[in-house]
User: Fold this.
Amino acid sequence: MAEITFLDAIREGLSEEMERDPNVFCLGEDIGRYGGAFKATDGLQARFGESRVIDTPVSEAAIVGAAAGAAHYGMRPVCEMQFIDFVSCAYDMLTNYVATARYRAMLPCPLVVRGPSGGYVRGGPFHSQNPEAAFLHTPGLKIAYPATAEDAKGMLKAAIRDDDPVLFFEHKYLYRRIKGTMPPGDHLVPLGKARVAREGTHLSIITYAATVWKALEAAEELEREDGLSVEVLDLRSLLPLDDEAIVATVKKTSRVLVVHEDTVTGGIAGEITARINELCFEWLDAPVRRVAAHDVPLPYAPPLEDFVLPQTSDIVRASRWLAAY
Amino acid sequence: MRLTRTLEERLVALYRQTKVVGGLFRSLGQEACAVGSAFALERRDVLSPLIRNLGSMLVKGAEPVEILRQYMAKGNSPTRGRELNIHFGDVVDRNFVGQISHLGDMVPVMAGVTLTFRMRGEDRVGLVYVGDGATSTGAFHEGINFAAVQRCPLVVVVENNGYAYSTPTNRQTAAARLADKAVGYGVPGVRADGNDVLEVYRVTRAAVDQARAGGGVTLLELMTYRRKGHAEHDSQSYVPPGEIETWAETNDPLDRYGERLTGEFGFDGAALGAVDEEVRATVDAATDQAETAPPCDGPDALRGVYADPAEMPVLWYRGDAAAAVTAHERPAGWGTHDG
Assistant:
């Protein structure tokens, strides 16, 4: 099988699910004829028609609200946010309406909201966001944030088949930079399960999305230069979190660095650290530390963005701190 | 209009030299909307531009060098590298309010700006630009409705250029005319030729005068055409063949104004050529100035999030690892107890 990009994997996942289930349809801004701002849905309208790949007005709240209504009556809508930054315009729909639907009114709401997220691309404050933490605090939603092309496809297919609403973050830095070979057949990756991206014994880095690749780079450097064996745990799903995998890696290495691209205060690393404290404090040989973005809106200029976001060298330095503790 | 076009053409050249860091957004073919409407305001009046309203900011006193520095992410750009393109404001002197990327959001913001003028009895008017796309947002609806109810001195300019990214206006709204939406808000709705700069000035001036006189909100729909893509990278594959060329050849706002200047107002070709030359010299000088401007300094990213503290802390992992371990505070007798 040939390697395909992360972006192609997304498109393949969408296409296969639309082929498999006539209830699956896509809606979003410029996704039809144009194929989406990043071409994630390129060719889908030609293949499945205008009624199943719908170009919408600039109306994120209506996109998500309409998806919810369709989902109540048996459809499986997949909403695209042109940039995930614009999911804020649908925040009310997602947190008040969609997330509570099953609990408050027995309304099934199997929909997916997907879109390009993340920085390292000079996108400035409104085309670079990582808003996952804003939704982590919303019972009723699920959150997926894959790092590999294989997971992008397998998890998107699983998200579409999931009976609950799933926010699906696609890191735009990975779209064309990361490639993978898709397993043959109906490739599904379950939500809620982390993945050991690299085995190690001295230190664990728990992370997700683009910083998985930075953690892997750091792990190689630490092995080469310091003789450290670093384990990298790719969470893949943020809600629910895979406690079992988190605890397993903590027990294995006893030193933990949590890394994410989102800003540090109120970020997901805080939740992970709290769980480690509650579940396996006795195994720790050092405090759990966080490497995440500085607490500022993400700026545009390259020197500023580079300063604000966590870099591979930061993960290396923080790992040395933990190893020396 | 000439300055807008020449400055944008210079930005394209810089973009191709990869000196523009992010995306580049053009207003080619719709310069009259921004320029004609901004001229209807006094200096004390406030406008909020959208991405294709560079011309309105130049009218309000934005300097070409500021625009160039901003696009090139220079350390002395108006936002010191924090934001892109024409996303910046000046509420102290020149009176334009910086936009964000989320469409429609500036309508409620400008409702609040003009509400303030009304509350304080200040003789000031606001003007907010949106595109055909933004009229589909909740923020647009809530903002114009709020301003209408409050009789805010606000002019809402909907620049209908035919496309929101790839989406044609007839896929954006089922309404025949965006100006008709005014009926639902209980305000006057006026549609005008957005490529006739004098007509744009005339209808905007009437709406501004009405707002100033206590007449509240007017919705103006300016009909124009976006001859370039959403941004410079956009191939415009969705545009029917010949459409762009037709507009360029038969309905260019600069050509039309030029013809009127020579035909009706007695200017000759040499006078217009002199203006073009002056504009080119201005843009050349601004380019030289912007290109030599220093880049941003990384740690400056931590400044300006709050009034107090003025600077956010550098995170722990940027420091020296060994020193951090030694410095990490521990209680007396730490590590000595036997469990």
